[in-house]
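Here is a complete protein record:
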Amino acid sequence: MELVIAEKPSVAQSIAAVLGATQRKDGYLEGNDYLVSWCVGHLVELVQPESYEEAWKKWSYDNLPIIPQEWQHEVKSDTKAQYQILKKLMHDDRVDAVVCATDAGREGELIFRLTYNMAGCRKSMKRLWISSMEESAIRDGFHNLRPGSDYDNLYKSALCRQEADWLVGINGTRLFTVLYGGKALKVGRVQTPTLAMLVDRESKIMNFKKEAYYMAHIMENGLDAVSEHISDKTEAERIAGACENGQALVTSVVKEEKWVAPPKLYDLTTLQRDANRLFGFTAKQTLEYTQSLYEKKLVTYPRTDSQYLSDDMEGTAKNVIEAIFNSLLFEQNIMFNPDIKRILNSKKVTDHHAIIPTMEIIKQDLKVIPESEMKILSLCANRLLCATGEKHIYNSTKAELTCNEIVFKVSGKEVWKNGWKEFDDFFKNSYKTTEDKSDAEEEKKLPELREGMMIAVEQTKVSEHFTQPPKHYTEDSLLSAMERAGAEDMGDEVERKGLGTPATRADIIEKLVKDGFVKREKKQMIPTEDGMKLITILPDVVKSPKLTADWENELTLVSKGEVAAEQFMSGIEAMVTDLVKTYHSVSDEHKAMFGTGKGGQEVLGKCPKCGADVVKGKFGAYCTGKCGMNVGKALGVTLSDTQVKSLLQGKKILVKGLKGKKGSYDAYLIPERIEEFSYTKDGKEIKGLQYKFKMEFPPKKDK
């Protein structure tokens, strides 16, 4: 009998249904010579420093660096029950082999192996490696199970990632927290360089000096030609005035046929970027929606960094494209002859191929899919059509005109084959996207121009413009920057570039917001004051995107068996040791950088909306960022400082004396998300933001 262990209950149920394990038991399913059970994410984690040595419980410089001689793990307290079920099943005499069916990636491997090792299991290990939850893919995967040992190097790289993050996080956080007077200054192997990129951009924006410039225009019958940038307004007005009612000579006309190639298929990062740009979804939301679609068998595995399908998937791609038209996601009257070859490249597919819909889209009722998930599914479907579509072809015209010895330029374009953009335009028209169109001013078709033509100037004008600072990062552009970090210093032969992996970048961004170092303002990601200060004091070794990108590449080489895990870890340990030796004291002036909130109030936490400090005020807790977030009350009840602190950490709180139709009652409030509220007081509409709560009721006491 084989024991199959998945990462989540929903995945286990899908696998069990295919294998015929239909009998429900406590924490697993059984049948047809299979036991199918599941983890609940990570069941086993690294122990805290004090578990190694009592002295390490105290945060002090003298105890650093903290480097365990032998790493120890423990079962997470909130998932012990499921761990015990798995341990019992692994030691069941009926079981002669264990199948690892956790997500087919680095973290999935870690989740399974830590549980397997902690349980002391020695039974034969096999690996299920699939890119889709469709029944056919699961069956295929079980017909081609691999020996677990094939993935030993992947497990080693996962352990290195976990241990490196622990060493940099524990030592960096404790070191700078102790040096700067006790306020928790969280340092992370990947999150700190990501914050550094945001702070660097913010500094450039803050130090930018806006300068005005002017352009003179000559206009005639739909033609609007402009001069070079002119710094002096009077000079621009003189040039425009001199051309008024004059003649302009066409001195140059350059016509070119240009084309835009179809986009590649989605990997997770490009999907997250488009979903943020078009729908305002955060990277974390996009990953959650795509993971849910994967578990519903509607899309392929999301945590991928490939934008191609393998060479043997030509038939699959054709069938899925036909299914997209038949599932009414798009109009069916478009004549389409897809170029499948363009999206096939086995050399560029590592663990998983690009994200595409599955054949399930014609079998399931798509009307019951939540709107947010439907947007992601439609995006993936649209991208498959775009990627296999024809080139977008247009004619570009650039012309120069001379009037009064001043050169004026004009350009225009005329599309003559929309190609893949036909699908793209249809998609954007079908959904109310939030794309910023301010940058994409469409060039118009120009009137017919020939060299030597004379044009009568009908009108002139002067327009005023200003030099523009760099733009704030959005999650779209931040994900792109994380993906490209360090790339300019790395050769093409490098295995992996950038900060983090497609699977981890969303969590890194969320952690920066939760820790109060970054705030979201609409789509913009802006470092908070504490975030700016933190990067100011940290050394390059912990905030350099290039160094972290090098580490990420080395982890990939560990997973391929090309770099020894011991070599990677000795480098991390040496870096941490040098960090502690180099930074041992700071001046009192620098210590004062991280004090209490403004005005000396006690800081209770960070605002979930804007990331500013929530402080204890004369009339209760309030957000110093004044973003409109109500943090001092819940359902009409004023909260204590302790309750506010717990709430800001995302924990549930017990609130007594809530008012209901049948009197007052007590309930646990669990913060789920933020929602808007409004009411009218003294004829004025008052608006703001508040937590949306889920309720749990304490058990009633027997009378």
In short: The longest helix spans residues 152-179.
